[in-house]
Amino acid sequence: MTPSITDSTVKAAIAAIASESATTQEKIEMLIELAHGLQKKPKTPQDLWSTVDLYKRACEMCGDDYPLLKARAKVGIAGALKSIPDEGTELLLQAKAAYTEALPILQQLASKEEIAEAQMNLGLVLQSLVPFNLAQIADSIKAYQDALRVFNSEKYPEEYAILHNNIAIAYLSISTGMEQKQLCEGLAVQTFESALKQINLIENPREYAMLQNNLGNALQYLQSTHPVENNLRAIAAYEEALKVRNSHDTPLEYANTISNKANAMFNLPDDLEKPEKGNPQNLLKARAYYQEAWEIFTQHQQLEQAQVVAQALQELEIELKLQQEKL
């Protein structure tokens, strides 16, 4: 394994670049490239802090002479700060500031793809700040929609799918009055379905599965007068996701989807014509899914998710016992 880069390694890298007989521009580009390489595969949070140091050094070397390189270094700083685990908001606010400073320069000098990527990442930062009342969800959605002008489904299916997924989740997070909430939930479902008209199972399996899984979640929790119909649609979406996700290749995604499917089955009558008869058969199927999901989450040390599934299993056992006593 490659050891994590340390402060002394960063200093050595900066010193090596400084001593090279290269132009200032070439030295700045070397720093940005070094930082970018480290940022792509960090092994510890310290690696990300080291990345920030490299980008900051590149920023200092830019001065006012290399505005595009300076903007790229700021985008790099923002991306690294966004990725550092932190329960507070300070790093997210710094990332927001860096994206906000960089974007006007990128819009003048960079490619449309580079601008769109920065808008997409700014949208994520804003969305993360919304629960702290430090950003508006509408601004996050606008940033995603700006990025979608470039990231279309034909040339950029992965970005297109992720942006639609993020927009739909943003709609679902809007918690105003009941009428507004229903409207936003409907918009979220429409957003997932719209993306799935462009993203298919054969060409983009990973994105297809993500969208189907999250469409299932949106349908399952819709405020609606047709809960059974929504649960059936949700289960159909989960089954589409499970055409891609399996316990061997994508165990955690698979466990996530089967536990979601179990949640829907928990609330689905065995006989749609006679819902009063309960759902012991669907409960038994749900139990098998929950148990399999719990084993996978536990095996992969996803203890929080394992705990949620264990709680659902306890509630299912109580419900199953009640229904069996009625028979």
TrEMBL record:
Protein name per its UniProtKB record: TPR repeat-containing protein
Alphabetical list of Gene3D superfamilies matching this protein: Tetratricopeptide repeat domain
InterPro entries: TPR-like_helical_dom_sf
Origin species: Tolypothrix tenuis PCC 7101
